Write a sequence for this structure.
């Protein structure tokens, strides 16, 4: 699936993955986003699956954009907001944006850019959410 097509709950899940989180359940009923170390949950869960919605909640999504040094721009009656993570200018003064994503909200555009920054232009259609994420694509990351 193209990263640019992510939206809703699926985008929320990929944002959690892009932060290195995995789904884990102790009782088989209640699922939480956790950090796995050698296959086992480490520390306190970050959030329950039901409570983590960075696309709808700036208190959750805003820090993600800050952590990834994502910038959001544009947006008017003719074009949706856009976001990216590396701004380049050429000798003619034209610019290009690494990982440029578009969404009908500023937060959505930024979160798509964050996922693109970690996983690239495509993501698995059916990932194993309980396994540790594999970050094979990181062209630029402040950390």
């Amino acid at each position: 699936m193209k990263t640019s097509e992510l939206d809703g709950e699926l985008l929320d899940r990929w944002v959690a993955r892009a932060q290195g989180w995995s789904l884990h359940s102790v009782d088989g009923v209640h699922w939480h986003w956790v950090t796995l170390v050698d296959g086992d949950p480490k520390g306190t869960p970050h959030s329950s699956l039901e409570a983590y919605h960075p696309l709808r909640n700036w208190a959750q999504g805003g820090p993600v954009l800050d952590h990834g040094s994502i910038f959001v721009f544009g947006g008017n009656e003719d074009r949706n907001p856009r976001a990216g993570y590396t701004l380049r200018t050429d000798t003619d003064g034209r610019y290009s944006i690494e990982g440029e994503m578009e969404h009908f909200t500023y937060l959505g555009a930024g979160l798509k850019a964050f996922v693109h920054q970690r996983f690239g232009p495509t993501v698995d259609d059916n990932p194993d959410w309980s396994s540790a994420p594999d970050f094979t694509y990181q062209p630029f990351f402040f950390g």
Q: What stands out?
A: The first helix runs from residue 8 to 18. Helices lie at 8-18, 58-67, 106-119.
